[in-house]
Amino acid sequence: MTDTEELRRRTQRLLDQYPPATTDRLDFLRARFDAGLAWVHYPEGLGGLGAPRSLQGVVNAELEAAGAPDNDPRRIGIGLGMAAPTILEYGTEEQKRRYLRPLWTGEEVWCQLFSEPGAGSDLAALGTRAVREGDEWIVNGQKVWTSSAHVARWAILIARTDPDVPKHQGITYFVCDMTDPGVEVRPLRQITGEAEFNEVFLTDVRIPDTRRLGRAGDGWRVAQTTLMNERVSIGGMAVPREGGMIGPVARTWRERPALRTHDLHQRLLRLWVEAEVTRFTGERLRQQLVAGQPGYEGSGMKLAFARLNQEISGLEVELRGEEGLLYDDWTMRRPELVDFTGRDAGYRYLRSKGNSIEGGTSEVLLNIVAERVLGLPAEPRIDKDVAWKDLAR
Question: Which residues are catalytic?
């Protein structure tokens, strides 16, 4: 049985064998994975030790104190937060051993091919088709709002494989190689001036059946694992006090008293308290994960994250007055990650507008919370038992 002291011994052994000051970053990360210290709750041989999830903090604290490198989780968040738990639950042993190690070390970046121009909030209405041809699937369609597609090697993909059954039943889940012929990535320039998102066109892309996750036609159930983990990873991130969006506003308030007004003071106090409540709620949610898979509470956290970010960034722009209207750089760029706190107030204000869309719109999440958390009556859905091919489009 792995306990706290055993984890400390294993971590110290790793540091002794691979001193962070003299070991190549990637070599250290690979060694950490192989030692089972990447995510300790994963099985042995897959970066873990089968230990309680709560003990990961023991490892992280020891490595941070020693100055060990990390795997840049903001850059590979889709792989860590969405692809990995789905592969762990539904992947074959061969798939787990092929994908998880380079995913965790950051050698291979992942993206998510779910949303489509006609299937965003109603994701189950997706129309990208995958047709079986021998041991391969031929995929044609278009995906949109794909973060990191321009740097990704792999994608988690859901596609329509049976149009003759209701929309939730005829979907299959695949792993798509973004370097394959027929995969075209185009930038989507946003209100920030950047192209952090992309649209992806799939034309006769051939995916081996060995890269299918779960049973054919069972992709919606597999996708639920991804989506629940996505909302936890977005809304339930660990942050320190005054971490995230509230931090820059609080610093400006303390450092520039000439900007203060009574009204702004009252609004800042309210948002500061709400940010703290949300932070502690996120901590409770992460502790619940120790006992099993994430529940629908992640949807509530993601809702709070979006609303708070938008309100806080609006307050910051008002606090700064004319200065808040300035914007540092409209240059077209294709960044590898989103940096809310490393840019100016104008960027935070504009970028936060997407928080209520990405990872599930706030409107959809309100329905999820109402029906699956609070147990309220479900909205009527007249298309629930209609074959996808017969739906009005």
Answer: 230
